[in-house]
Amino acid sequence: MLSLIIRKIWVVLITALLLSVIVFILLRLIPSDPLGMMLPPSATHEDAEVLRQALGMDGSIAKQYGVWLQNAVQGDLGRSIFFREPVTALIKTALPATLELAMVSLVMALLIAIPGGVILYKFEGRKLEIPADFLLVVLLSVPSFLWGIILIVVLGVTFPILPFMGQLDPSFSVPRVTGFLLIDTLLAGQWAAWWDALRHLLLPAFALALSFSPIIARVLRSSLIEIATEPYVNVARLRGVSERRILWGHMFKNAALPTLTLLGVQFGFLFGGTLLIEVIFSFPGLGNLMVQAIKNFDLPLIQGVALVFCLLVLGVNFCVDGLYTALNPKLRQA
Fold it and tell me: Pick the residue with more confidence: 181 or 48?
């Protein structure tokens, strides 16, 4: 098991390295000069060269990447051209908001997908199967950003039930301890601020969950249908075990394994979906930071955020693989 973990860690590191090389090279091939934003209109060619040399952008792409990688290993991802602050500090400020949004979205998606998958399995071969499949296809066809717009129009404007701008009402002041607003409000004992932060999270998290949960429910339903014909299920029925106990005590545990694998893969798309959702809801996370970096052609910030997104997705997949191995006796024995 230890050797397997070490191999998987090496795979994660090599993948992250390759992706950083690809992102670094592609950004350098774009026909645009980010230094133009940092120089005044009266700047001369000599001024541009001095600034380019100061930022380490005067050498070849290979030399620039070597310098960047050496600094990145030490936790220095460069300095933002637009914000004029260290990239690491900007990411450290924005990352907790995105993680908080993603985790709440994941919980909401599971609360929708698990009962939904079981209900779809129960509808198999019944009159409600076709309407249920049609509803599932409709949900799969709507992207997360469109769900965000719909939720803003319905629950934010037409029926002003939930806030849809920002992360917290400006009237609250919460000291930053962990960076996770739901935790910091609890540590400060500000229950009203905690409730307000949760209400600000509900709409963007629900928009992500609505686009994330249908595929999970569909795979869970398919797994349950396949497992329903297994010999141990038929033996349990012959022994007089109730269908409810067979479903939750025997079938669900095995059906959850392929669903867990898909969950790890789809979680990467969930992180990608936060980019547009954070822009729509003015949520101060990594996605919003990335959009601002792209809009201002801020190369160091784009590279830093892309690397963090990559590491997050790889980390989640690593954890899911480990959990899958721990839950599957055959893989543990292998």
Answer: 181
Structure tokens at 281: 């809801």
How far is it, in rounded angstroms, from Cα 5 to Cα 14?
14
User: Which residues sit opposite 79 in a β-bridge?
Assistant: 86
Contact 147, 207 (CB under 8 A): yes
Q: DSSP secondary structure string, 59-101?
A: S-HHHHHHHHHHHHHTT---B-TTT-SBHHHHHHHHHHHHHHH
3-state secondary structure of 188: coil
Cβ pair 274, 55 in contact under 8 A:
no
* Range 140-162 average pLDDT: 89
% pLDDT > 90, the chain = 13
What distance in Å separates the CA atoms of residue 207 and residue 212, rounded to the nearest whole number?
9
What residue type is 222 in one-letter code? S
Is the model more confident about 31 or about 117?
117
d(CA 163, CA 152): 9
How high is the pLDDT of residue 320? 75
Whose tokens are 């109730």? That residue is 242
Please give the model's pTM, rounded to 2 decimal places: 0.83
- CB contact set of 275 (below 8 Å; sequence gap of 6+): 287, 288, 290, 291
Q: How far is CA 19 from CA 205, 304, 307, in A?
A: 28, 12, 8
- Break the chain into its structural domains and give their ranges: 2-73, 93-333
CATH class of 93-333: mainly alpha
Convert the pLDDT of each residue in 291-315 to its tens digit: 888 888 888 888 888 888 888 888 8
For residue range 120-130, list pLDDT tens digits in order: 888 887 888 88
Higher pLDDT pick, 320 / 248: 248
